[in-house]
C-alpha cells in the first residue's frame, strides 16, 4: 500500500482555531517544565484532553519545524544612527552569526536590511529572536524570508 504523502502549510496564528492555539500553549507549558502532566497543562489553558491528543502531533510552532540552521531575515528599519549596530548587537547577544548582510540606500527615512544568519548556536528560538529584534525602537518589522543554504 502506498503511503500518503504528508502536506504542510504555514498558517498565521490568527487563522488557527482556539483549540489549536491552546494545544500550542499546553505544549509550551510542558516543554518549559511549568507543568508535569498533560492533565495539568490542558487544565491550565482550558482545553479538553481529547482536543489536545487530536492536534498534538499535527501542530508545531514555526521554530520547531525549521530544521535548517540558516535563516534569512528581512528587516524594515528607520534610518537613524546606530540602528544597524543595535540590531547586530542583539543578534550577537543571542549567539546569531551573520553570514551575509545587504542594506538598501535609505529613502524617506527608511531602509531595508536582508540578513542571512547561522542559527545553530542561538540561545533562544528564532521566533523569540524576531520578537527581541522588533523591540528595538528603530526596527519596524522583521520577516523570515527563507531558510536553508545561501
Protein structure class: alpha+beta
Report Rg: 19 Å
| Count of individual domains | 2
**CATH architecture name of the largest domain:** 2-Layer Sandwich
What key attributes describe this structure?
2 domains, four-stranded antiparallel sheet, elongated, alpha+beta, 150 residues, Alpha-Beta Plaits, 6 helices
In short:
The protein is an alpha+beta fold and 150 residues long. The chain has helices at residues 18-31, 38-45, 49-55, 62-65, 83-93, 126-134, and strands spanning 70-78, 97-103, 110-118, 139-147.
Please write out the topology.
Layout (H helix, E strand, L loop, with lengths): L17 H14 L6 H8 L3 H7 L6 H4 L4 E9 L4 H11 L3 E7 L6 E9 L7 H9 L4 E9 L3
Antiparallel strand pairs: 1-3, 1-4, 2-3
Explain this structure.
This protein has helices at 18-31, 38-45, 49-55, 62-65, 83-93, 126-134; strands spanning 70-78, 97-103, 110-118, 139-147. The protein has a 4-stranded antiparallel sheet with strand order 2-3-1-4, with helices on one face. The protein is built from 6 helices and 4 strands. It is an alpha+beta fold and 150 residues long. The chain has 2 domains: 13-60; 70-147, Alpha-Beta Plaits, CATH 3.30.70.260. Helix 1 (18-31) crosses helix 2. The mean pLDDT is 88. The protein starts with 17 loop residues before the first helix and ends with a strand. Helix content is 35%, strand content 23%. The chain is elongated, with a radius of gyration of 19 Å.
Amino acid at each position: 500500500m502506498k503511503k500518503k504523502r504528508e502536506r504542510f502549510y504555514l498558517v498565521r496564528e490568527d487563522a488557527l482555531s482556539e483549540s489549536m492555539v491552546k494545544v500550542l500553549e499546553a505544549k509550551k507549558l510542558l516543554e518549559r517544565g511549568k507543568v508535569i502532566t498533560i492533565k495539568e497543562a490542558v487544565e491550565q489553558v482550558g482545553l479538553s484532553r481529547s482536543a489536545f491528543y487530536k492536534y498534538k502531533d499535527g501542530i508545531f510552532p514555526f521554530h520547531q519545524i525549521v530544521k535548517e540552521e540558516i535563516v534569512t531575515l528581512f528587516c524594515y528599519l528607520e534610518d537613524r544612527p546606530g540602528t544597524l549596530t543595535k540590531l547586530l548587537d542583539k543578534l550577537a547577544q543571542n549567539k546569531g552569526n551573520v553570514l551575509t548582510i545587504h542594506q538598501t540606500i535609505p529613502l524617506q527615512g527608511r531602509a531595508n536590511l536582508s540578513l542571512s544568519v547561522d542559527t545553530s548556536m542561538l540561545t533562544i528560538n528564532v521566533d523569540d529572536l524576531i520578537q527581541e529584534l522588533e523591540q528595538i525602537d528603530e526596527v519596524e518589522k522583521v520577516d523570515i524570508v527563507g531558510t536553508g543554504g545561501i
